[in-house]
Amino acid sequence: MIRIDEEFIGLTSAKAKNSSRKRMNYNFHATADDTMHRMLNAMEPETYIQPHKHENPDKVEAFFCLRGRLLVVEFDDYGNITDHIVLSNKSGNYGCEITARSWHSIISLEAGSVAYEVKDGPWNPADDKHFAPWAPKEGDTGCEAFNAGILSSLKIAIY
C-alpha cells in the first residue's frame, strides 16, 4: 500500500519547490505503457503549464486537489476562456475532469499545492499533448504575463 499522507505529499511538494520548473510529479503507474496513469502533481505558483489538449489519441484527464488551491481553465480554439474552476479541499471544489480534445491549463494559486492526477495512458511524448499555438511555450518570455492575464480576467488572486 502506498499511503498518500501529509508526509508523502510534503516530500513531493518540497521537490517541486526546488525544481527549476517549480513542479514535480510522483508517478504511481509502473510504466509509460500503462493504460491508466496516476500521479501526484505538486505545483508552485511560479510554474507555467502551456495550454494543451489530448487528442489523436483522445485522452481524458482528471484532477483532485489534495492540498492548496489550483485553477483549472478550459479554452476554445482561439484562446478564449470557456470554463474554469478553483480546486481546493477547503472550498468543497475537490476535482474536475477534462474531456478529450479540450484545451486546458492549470495555475497553482498557493505555495505547496498538490493534485492527484489521473489520465488515460499509454504515454508517448510524440503525441501525448498538442500545445496551443496561441500561448507561449514553456520557458519562453511571456509565460508569467500569460498566467497573470488569466488571473486578472477571472479576478482570482494567488495567496
Describe the protein:
With 159 residues, this protein is α+β, with helices and mostly antiparallel strands. The protein has one domain (6-154): Sandwich (Jelly Rolls). It contains 2 helices and 10 strands; from the N terminus they run H-E-E-E-E-E-E-E-E-E-E-H. It has helices at 6-18, 143-154, and strands at 23-27, 36-43, 52-53, 61-67, 69-75, 81-88, 95-98, 103-108, 113-120, 130-131. A 5-stranded antiparallel beta sheet has the order 1-2-9-4-7. Strands 6-5-8 form a 3-stranded antiparallel beta sheet, with no helix packed on it. It has a two-stranded antiparallel ribbon with strand order 3-10. Strand 5 and strand 6 form a beta hairpin. The model has no long low-confidence stretch (mean pLDDT 96).
Draw up the topology in text.
Layout: H1 6-18, E1 23-27, E2 36-43, E3 52-53, E4 61-67, E5 69-75, E6 81-88, E7 95-98, E8 103-108, E9 113-120, E10 130-131, H2 143-154
Antiparallel strand pairs: 1-2, 2-9, 3-10, 4-7, 4-9, 5-6, 5-8
> How do the strands line up in the largest sheet?
1-2-9-4-7
Mean of residue pLDDT values: 96
Quote the CATH topology. Jelly Rolls
Alpha-carbon Rg, integer: 15 Å
Helix content: 10-25%
CATH class: Mainly Beta
CATH structural architecture: Sandwich
CATH homologous superfamily title: Jelly Rolls
Low-confidence stretches at least 5 residues in length (pLDDT < 50)? Answer: none
Count of discrete domains: 1
Strand content: 35-45%
The counted number of beta strands is 10
Spell out the helices and strands N to C.
Answer: HEEEEEEEEEEH
So what's the overall shape? globular
* Number of discrete helical segments: 2
For the record, give the distance between the C-alpha atoms at the N and C termini, rounded to a whole number: 34 Å
Largest sheet: 5 strands, antiparallel
Q: What structural category do the secondary elements indicate?
A: alpha+beta
